[in-house]
């Protein structure tokens, strides 16, 4: 069931991407949407190829399922997300100051809002997880 859902979602990504690319070439939308369509189409196509490989090759599927269920890999993934969050906050905080110094007030404000949003999300997630565990 989960595999079918992934298949359908990736088909949708591929279709949406193709539609955006077509609309961009027709001049209905600007090139920003062409890039977005390319990204959607590429992600959909790559994931469809992965699903095809998983369904076709039993040994590869078993290897991937073992990797995905391994505790060590779960720990590494969670640690990587934590590091990414820490570094994002540091870089956005530094960016806030640097953008303000060079006179880019809009970029400075956007970086500051990003830090605030991440901190609010962290606080909410912390309290949800605190109740759960």
Structure description:
This protein is mainly α and 133 residues long. It is 91% helix and 0% strand. It is built from five helices and no strands. It has helices spanning 2-25, 31-56, 58-69, 71-101, 105-132. The two termini are 29 Å apart. The mean pLDDT is 91.
Top keywords for this entry?
single chain; 133 residues; mainly alpha; 5 helices; 91% helix; flat
Rounded to the nearest angstrom, the distance between the terminal CA atoms is: 29 Å
General form: flat
Mean pLDDT: 91
Order of helices and strands: HHHHH
Helix proportion of residues, in percent?
Answer: over 70%
How much strand content do the residues show? under 5%
Helical/strand content category: mainly alpha
| Major sheet size, sense and barrel closure | none
Radius of gyration: 21 Å
Please provide the count of β strands. 0
Number of helices: 5
Outline the secondary-structure elements.
Layout (H helix, E strand, L loop, with lengths): L1 H24 L5 H26 L1 H12 L1 H31 L3 H28 L1
Helix pairs in contact: 1-2, 2-3, 4-5
């Amino acid at each position: 069931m989960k595999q079918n859902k992934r298949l359908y979602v990736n088909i949708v990504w591929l279709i949406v991407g193709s539609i955006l690319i077509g609309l961009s070439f027709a001049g209905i939308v600007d090139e920003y949407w062409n890039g977005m369509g390319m990204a959607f189409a590429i992600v959909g196509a790559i994931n469809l190829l992965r699903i095809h490989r998983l369904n076709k090759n039993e040994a590869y599927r078993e290897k991937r399922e073992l990797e995905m269920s391994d505790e060590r890999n779960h720990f590494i993934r969670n640690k990587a997300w934590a590091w990414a969050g820490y570094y994002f906050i540091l870089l956005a905080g530094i960016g806030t100051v640097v953008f303000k110094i060079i006179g880019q007030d809009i970029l400075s404000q956007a970086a500051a809002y990003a830090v605030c949003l991440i901190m609010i999300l962290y606080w909410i997630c912390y309290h949800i997880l605190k109740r759960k565990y």
